Fold these 2 entries.
Entry 1:
Amino acid sequence: MTTKRIISAVLGIVAGLLVAVVFFADFNQASENASGDLKSKAEKVYVPYGELDEYYMMSSGGHSGQLFVYGIPSMRKIRTVPIFTPDPATGYGYSKETKEMLGGFTWGDFHHPAISETAGDYDGEFLFANDVGNNRVAAVDLSTFTTVDIMSLPNMGGPHAGVFVTENTEYIALPTRFARPLDNKYADLDKYEEEYKGVVSMTTFDKETKKFDLAYQIVLPPWSYDLSDAGKKMSGDWIVMTTYNSEFATTNLEINASQNDRDYIVLVNWKKLEEEVAAGNYHDVNGAKMIDPRDHKGAIYAVPVAKSPHGVDVTPDGTRYIAAGKLAPMMTVFSFEKTFEAIEKEDFTDEKFGIPVLSYESVMEREVDPPGALGPLHTQFDDKGNAYNTMFISSEIVKWNIETGEVIDRTPSYFSPGHAAAAEGDTVSPDGKWLVSLNKISKDNFLSVGPSHPESMDLIDISGEKMEHIMAVPVDPEPHYAQIVHRDKIKTVTVYEKDENRENSVWKQEDARVERKGDEVHVYGIAMRSRFIFDAQSDRPDAVTVKEGDRVFFHLTNIDLDQDITHGFGINEYDLNFEVQPGQTSTLEFVADKAGVYPIYCTNFCSALHQEMSGYLLVEPK
Amino acid sequence: MTTKRIISAVLGIVAGLLVAVVFFADFNQASENASGDLKSKAEKVYVPYGELDEYYMMSSGGHSGQLFVYGIPSMRKIRTVPIFTPDPATGYGYSKETKEMLGGFTWGDFHHPAISETAGDYDGEFLFANDVGNNRVAAVDLSTFTTVDIMSLPNMGGPHAGVFVTENTEYIALPTRFARPLDNKYADLDKYEEEYKGVVSMTTFDKETKKFDLAYQIVLPPWSYDLSDAGKKMSGDWIVMTTYNSEFATTNLEINASQNDRDYIVLVNWKKLEEEVAAGNYHDVNGAKMIDPRDHKGAIYAVPVAKSPHGVDVTPDGTRYIAAGKLAPMMTVFSFEKTFEAIEKEDFTDEKFGIPVLSYESVMEREVDPPGALGPLHTQFDDKGNAYNTMFISSEIVKWNIETGEVIDRTPSYFSPGHAAAAEGDTVSPDGKWLVSLNKISKDNFLSVGPSHPESMDLIDISGEKMEHIMAVPVDPEPHYAQIVHRDKIKTVTVYEKDENRENSVWKQEDARVERKGDEVHVYGIAMRSRFIFDAQSDRPDAVTVKEGDRVFFHLTNIDLDQDITHGFGINEYDLNFEVQPGQTSTLEFVADKAGVYPIYCTNFCSALHQEMSGYLLVEPK
């Protein structure tokens, strides 16, 4: 090696070291910044003992059939509230009342929760849930976080596109996803265009009786209805729905339902249809008051939209509706003002199934197409006039200005976000504080639990100009949508009222009794710390003897009126379990079809002597 | 007011202000310290995106029947693994295989998880679960986090005191909680002492076939068996169990089972009994090989213990067993060495049901009685020779030295802790890093969800001399016990192997077919992004036509061999849903008892065209 070469080599090494030093300095700096960021993120989600989360997130549980309740910002899961699926942890689907409410079904597919609204704002009183699997709608009372009514919907094929409520909860709307023949008739798929229909259910809910009613249905072409939203303020009388499969494909929809460049948004004026129904202008179909657009003009319209849209969302001020393209890489902003003008002017380009089709150019305000952003599915809002879109394929959230279409920020989500939920995001006054991205794929984000991965959620701080990804959280399958409501709006009761006139209730130990009526045995019993009293007259008040084949009713009242003192009631080997909350009366009904001796015990840890809270069911052989 | 009085008053005010200033200065200082502590706590539990939790916590789900998997230190819930209760979110209890495994039962009461062990250390291969409700034991394969076997146990009345495994998983032991007549006979409660029995089930599990076997049972007096543990090292051949109700009370146990000052710990040498069984020295009772202590000497002993104990736990080195008093405010340390000596010397004070009762004074090493600490329930361990006890009544964790009995630290838990779980806490080598207190009452700790409160868990850092409470977390009802295992021990598979010889599997699209055998219709189908192929020969490969009354089998294979690509399969209005994981084949069996048209759809979001992944079941009317 020559001197020159040596010098070159040394210089090279020195230069390399300098580069390395600079690089490491930068790296350390970046690392310190990242570390500082992480501390700040950690503090943002940490809720110290003694404090409470600021928001409830009410998340659908998808095909679990249940509601998942989270606290935000901690992202701690607080509770699974059973809706469509039995839940032995709370006795739901085991007690007589809840078993009857489930009507023999064992699951549901809950996609879109909607909190009841007053003047377009969440009022925190009830939450509604759709069941895509078995065509039902349910209501959860948010004073007790219990399901209070479930109604089956005729003529439906999976009410995926619900539930969304009108701004004073006048209606809970559920459009169907899969077309089926009306009245559950059999018809071959060759007759799809003529015999299969899409149906929208317009249901009402009475807050006093806590019962649903099916007000009316709308029969529509056999397009697939995907998502919907209710108007607000100037658009308050309307609902909007996206459709796909305007091709009427009956097989291989992956390809065949993606042929047309445009599908439709369907607009419905629910107030006008309400008047039609009141005037008796409907047909009875399978017990439903059915509205047909071919008979009713002036209430139902269609707007062409980029192919196979997923979400359509009304802006907080009610002036626009925004479609997310799914198969088209853009969001389309439509103006309600322009829509109403086009309707007024009869600016129609076509008619389908009696439904006038409005001119796209006349009602469209803007197409927003961020470069490289693919698979927009759903739009949420903040308090500063911005929209947030989930991008399923490019795995990101895009923030943009509704007035100008300007893209303000983009942040990754992990991975493939479906919907997003913003704090008070579906109301007339979003809070602009937190956004949760509900992702469909989690890959390696969390400790592996085998082939069936958890879903994932990203908590994103949207209070600043730029979004900040704070935390990723795993979740059981499968949240599709959530609503985030401020804690001040939820007013719970923690102990049921002591109502001495309540049917089947027993409040005094000496009133606990067993009554036989033919082959029915009615036990009017008490659960209290730390014993059961079934029969005050017996030497063994916590034992009940019946005959094999008897129909047995345990009417049980929890007379412990203290917060958080739940008593369970399980019968060993009889596959039976239910619960009574403080002050609650509930009934378990079953046939004692197995002779023998079966321990009864409190299944919910209630006191220091919980283990001693037990008794026996003795079933004398025939 | 005199001048003197005025001066006094002013001085008093000044002094008061000084005190106030000093107080507030202190308060601010304390507040800043607290704030610093909170930052540090926040950082301890924050796991940034891209990193993983260090430990899995496998928690029982109580009467939910399921396993809850958490990450530690983040305390994020990763997954609900269904064991005893159907779970539509994963199709568990709907597919033919899992439905048969559940055997018609709809719930279980899962109290105590036990991870399989090799040489006294968690090996991370399987997890075992007891069902107090319906007398079963289950195994979860931790390579897939799925339940692989459930076995019903005869002669049992709620195997509460299990499951605990011996140090090489030779046995999974399950002692019963409620005495019942053997062989499910009927006997009046007046015959309790003669006819009712406590039974211990000794089950084995074959890791190759993944099946349980009931090796033998032990019949014991009708005491209630509450908790148990297996010995380690020098005590490896033994199991220990606590009892209550040595009074033989048959009613109002709250009072009647708390009369005696002492109940018993029962010690069983499982190895000796194994030899007896091998030699044919047992009676057949209801299909079980039953060992009776009246016939077998030298393997079963009783030790008196302070009244109504809950937990009994063997120290990591296997030298001692510690009973938690529940109704006596103390922990009792027993020496195995002294126990073996007493057995050797036949240092017996009594005999019950053929069981020699050892002298308390001879085998007891120490009583640990921290002042004011009430309701000890369970003991866990660290790597420095310390024990940690949950105190149900005084709501705290007490740390004390096993050798000296010295109480080292006490910290509150919120509220009423049952068990606690320490990192690797049941092994021969605990990690001494984290302790989770599993609490029974949460009161106002979290956002209210009505009368049915979440349970709560406290994460406590036990790496220092003093314990540090880090975070409180809500949880669904109701974890009773958990085990915390290091992530390095869990080896999962994320995609099932493509096994072309697997029964009913179909891997090529052209092989998808429908075969009719009498009134059985077998569909050999494929699920893939983003379509179903049931019948490659049909114009509509994603539609199946059957006749009303047919028995239908959908054998479905997911041929997407990519991580996290799950396909669901729901049939609208038919109350049916199941899933296939990547590479998995599974079967759904049902009777098509309703004529009409029923949409089939993928229930687990799988791809951008997931909504299009649908088809139809057409049921022709009879």
Note: Chain A has seven helices and 43 strands.
Entry 2:
Amino acid sequence: MHLLSISSLGDSQLDQLFARAQDYALDPRSGRDRLAGRTIFNCFYENSTRTAMSFAQAAARLGAQAITLSVEHSSVKKGETLADTARTLGAMGPDALVLRHRQNGAAEEVAALVDCPVVNAGDGTREHPTQALLDALTLRQQFGSLTGRTIAIIGDIAHSRVAHSNAELLPRLGASVRLAGPPALVPADAGSHSIDEAIAGADAVMMLRVQRERLDEDLGDAPGEYLRLYGLTPERLALAAPGAVVLHPGPMNRGVEIADEVADLPGRSLILRQVANGVAMRMAVLELLIAG
Amino acid sequence: MHLLSISSLGDSQLDQLFARAQDYALDPRSGRDRLAGRTIFNCFYENSTRTAMSFAQAAARLGAQAITLSVEHSSVKKGETLADTARTLGAMGPDALVLRHRQNGAAEEVAALVDCPVVNAGDGTREHPTQALLDALTLRQQFGSLTGRTIAIIGDIAHSRVAHSNAELLPRLGASVRLAGPPALVPADAGSHSIDEAIAGADAVMMLRVQRERLDEDLGDAPGEYLRLYGLTPERLALAAPGAVVLHPGPMNRGVEIADEVADLPGRSLILRQVANGVAMRMAVLELLIAG
Amino acid sequence: MHLLSISSLGDSQLDQLFARAQDYALDPRSGRDRLAGRTIFNCFYENSTRTAMSFAQAAARLGAQAITLSVEHSSVKKGETLADTARTLGAMGPDALVLRHRQNGAAEEVAALVDCPVVNAGDGTREHPTQALLDALTLRQQFGSLTGRTIAIIGDIAHSRVAHSNAELLPRLGASVRLAGPPALVPADAGSHSIDEAIAGADAVMMLRVQRERLDEDLGDAPGEYLRLYGLTPERLALAAPGAVVLHPGPMNRGVEIADEVADLPGRSLILRQVANGVAMRMAVLELLIAG
């Protein structure tokens, strides 16, 4: 079994993941030795401290070792294809392979070539299922059931695998999702909310990271302009439902897509709880895929 | 005890390594906890994803932790000599030190300065003993005894530590070795086979990776020319014995030294089995050196 | 509890660290499983092979896993503040966080933001407490009590966190410390010894590494001049007490701040014993902070 996308998970698997992850969120040490003697290959072809360390921490807490592929040293530089790298890594017999790759569909391609479970830790602009799962866990801890809740996801919708995976997952859990962002970064089929309309009355606002490259190249706004036009300021958050919570997958650009006062809002910014839940959810995912 | 070269291994040690590695190839989990609590320093001064990860996986399967020295961060950049680095790493008390280094004789130099076993994971153009051992294991799985078998090793013989270690090891196991390659890349004392002559009637053909730098600088052939002149095409493989098998230490340059149809030939391309055997053989090596 | 500076350690904690580290120096395997199931985040924002590997080895010997943050991949490059990185890493629930950072006070800043123990593994030009602790352990093994002993610390005093932490610690253990170096690299309040005066009659001489950048830029001496003017030559060592010992935190610039004959002086150069003691002391530190 692999975790390649949200749609590859059945409802009972979702239930199992949320239940187990919640156990681990409450008692991180309770998974000790569950995957003793196992090895996870942690293959990050794009930089991501937080996700790579989160998987390594999840593996360690289950008693497994994460072996990190250093991309700088990798055979990619020697002209090896992704398929050959995948077959090679698979032949070494890891118990699971975690893959972050800039190419859409990379995880599917790898999964078809190896004998072990593959976790998609982000592929191109498509899917980042463990991020959506940890976001949903965080929202469920806050709201209990998500039925009838409205979640606004704001930012570079077009390029965000976080948005895509959440837009798949959250409606399955009963939530309504509204997508909005700078006009150039929202695809036509995402609906036609303005950012303010998307946030109005929402129970949670999930801000996406804006890529600095995109800031410079596509949007070309003056410093501070992005925050005023498209970012989450206290004024804009005030449009949401009373007590609405704030999420961000990190790393944040403070003063760009999110104002300091919002990022640090006590009791309402769930950003660090997302990080803690990320370890718990990845423990649940690794356990499900490896130990069943 | 160290593993610095093929010639440093006695016949009974060879027997022991092949027997143990075969056990681990059949049951990779059977080594669990054999090296529990041990640490292996994995010191790669040249990039090699596959060898570094293979040793890390081997260590993990024995219950040991591999601690990877990141060369980019290393004291080499601060002007420290290899000898001082070796003494320093040795003083930290690893249970074994695995070294890949571009300098001929680096492993010998390090072994003379530390108290722990040293494994030569490739030094300059000289030796790569665990690669030859895993190649031999793969051939023995295929043929049983290697007595009377002919192995053609094709490519950049002059610069290949893989070729050198195999040319030491395989004859000790009863095989005949024929070395051939582009004329500029075969030393005078390697015999004077053409590539086609070397392959004719061979039971196995081991293709070597051609360094892209060398392709550009020394051989200067047009794209596709290398494969036609020096690579393993289906036509050239047809010169070998019926059912002859194909090996490659990886990573492959597909369409350069090896054609796709050959690299992926079912039942005859043993390239992925080499990778799997690499982990098993390195388990056997680490166990022999550390636990005796 | 954190280890941020020497002054943050009480006398009884010092005693405990020295006793425990001495146990581990004598029997490195005696800590096995003491921190089983724990994870240490090893966060090095400056390159340091030896310190990072020393902490990783210490963690492994206690049964813990060190998870290394790769700074090249880190969110720093994505514009994340140190505070946000700290909070994020802390939210992942490591059992301790080891930090090397070029910014003075970085460890204090991080410690205020996370729930786990923080070990300062060097911050800017300020403190490197585990280095001073291992230096003191090494001197105590040599001399027993340090009361009445004189330690000369020679080199770039102005920029050396090693000097600063030792200048805090060694006097607390009863030693006199004399600081000296190239005039441009010694702050006015460090006393006005010449190097020869500082070494005269000293029981131990601790040479500091001179940064190559500084050699080029500030001192501008001809090759070999540094050693003659400011380095530890056999002639200069002869000014010290008979049998005086030599320390260096490494990596050494041989022929710059220290002559080969001195670096390798049998029985009197304690440089490799410092390295071994580094692992033992870091085991003691991790154990104290995590297990109490």
Note: The radius of gyration of chain A is 19 Å.
